[in-house]
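# nightly structure sweep
# worker-07 picked up a monomer target from the shared queue
# config: single-sequence mode, recycle default, output format = C-alpha cells
# input follows
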Amino acid sequence: MADRPDFLLRGDRARLFPSLADTSREGRITSIFLALLPQIPHLAQEIFATAGLRIGQRAHIDCFTEIVLPGQEDGPQDRPDGLIRIATGRTEWTALVEAKIGKAKIDSEQVQRYVRLARQNGIDAVITISNEFVARADHSPAAVPKTLLRKTDLFHWSWTWIATECEILALQKAVDDPEQAFLLREFLTFLSHPGTGVERVTQMGPHWKDLIQKVSHQGSLTRSLPEVEEAVGSWFEEIRDLTLQLSRHVGQSVDTVIERKLKDDPIARLKAGIADLAESQCLTASFRIPDAAANLDVTADLARKTLSAGMRLKAPGDRKSTKARVNWLLRMIREDDPRLWVRAHWPGRTPPTAQQLTLLRARPEALQPDTSDAAPHMFEVILLEECAKRFAGRRTFIEDLERIVPEFYNIVGQNLRDWRPAPPKPVAKQEEFPEESTAPEPET
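# output follows
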C-alpha cells in the first residue's frame, strides 16, 4: 500500500508528537487525535460508527496532516487540517478533516469550499471537529446547500464527544492492550488540560432562552420549531456528559437508559425527543447506576421552570397499612431536605398523591387519599427545585442540573434499597400419630 493516496500532492503522516509551533493548538490536537485512531482500534470503531463505517480487523487506517490536493488555491483558508483513509479489502473510504478549538466556530463558506474540493478529488466525506455540539454526527453547525452534499457526506464531531467516547472506553476497560490503554489515558489527560482549548458542555443552545419564553407566553410548542430540535440536541449532549460525571461520582460506569428501538437509531431518538418535548414541555432522561435500587430519572419542566431527580420503588408487600409502608421508606432517607417529596401510587384509578418528606416524618398517613383506604403499591422519591430565572439561562440551567442530580444521589439514591419478599420458611412437619391398636381389650 502506498504511503499516500494517489490524489494527495503533499502530506505528512499524523504525528503523536507533532513538530508545530506552540501557537498552533488546532494543528497539534488534530495531529495527536488522528495519530491515535490507527493505534487504538476500539476508539476508531466508536468514532467511525457515527459515519456509518464498520471498522473490522481487516481495516487499515491512514491519517495525514499538512495536506495539499489538486485544485487547491494558494492560501491557508483552502488547506484542510487532515485527511483520513480507511481501506478494507477492495473498498476505500476517505475524508477531509477541518478542526477548530476553543471559541473558534466552523466557517460555513470554508466548509463549502472543502466539500467542492472533496468532490473534485473523489473524496467521500468532509469531517469537521470543534467545541460546537450537534444532535448527531450527520448534523453540521455549518450551513451547506443540500445540492453540494449529493455525492459528498458531511459529518461533525465535538471535542467533548470525542473525550466522552474516550472516557467511556476507559471506564469500561474496553481497551485490553496495555500500550493502547496507556495512550488512551494520556490522550484523556491531554484533552482535560485547559490549555488544549477543549470545552465540555457548559450551556444549552443559542435559542434556549427564546424557547423558554415561547413556553411561558404561548403555553405550547410544535415539533417543527427549530428551537425545539436544538433544545433536544443540546439536552442529549448534556445527558451524555452528565452520564460521565455520574460515572466519576460513583466510581463505576453509569449508562443512559434508552429505549431498545431507539438505541441504534439516533434519528428516531431525536424525533422521539422532539415529540416528547412538544407534547409534555419537559426534557427527560434516565440513568442506570450499578446496584442502585432503581433508575435515576431526571426531568426539566419548561413550563414550571423546575428541575427534578428521583427514583421509583415498589412498596413493601409485607406491610399492610399506608403508615407502615411510608415508615419503611422514611427509614432509608436520613436527611430532611425541604426539596424532597414523596409521591405515592395507588391501586385502581386513584390518582397519585404527594407530600413533602419533612411533613411525612410527623404524619406518615398524610399521603392517604380521602377516596381510598388501600395501601400504596409504589413510591417515588423526588428532589424538586424551582429554578426561576436561572432556568432560562443557557449556563445556569446546566450548572443547576449538574448540581442537583449528584445531590439527589448523595442524599437519597445511595441509601435506597428495593423491597423483596422474605424467602419462604420451611414447612413444619406434621406430628406423627401411631396407628390405632387392633389388639382385643383385656377381660375384666
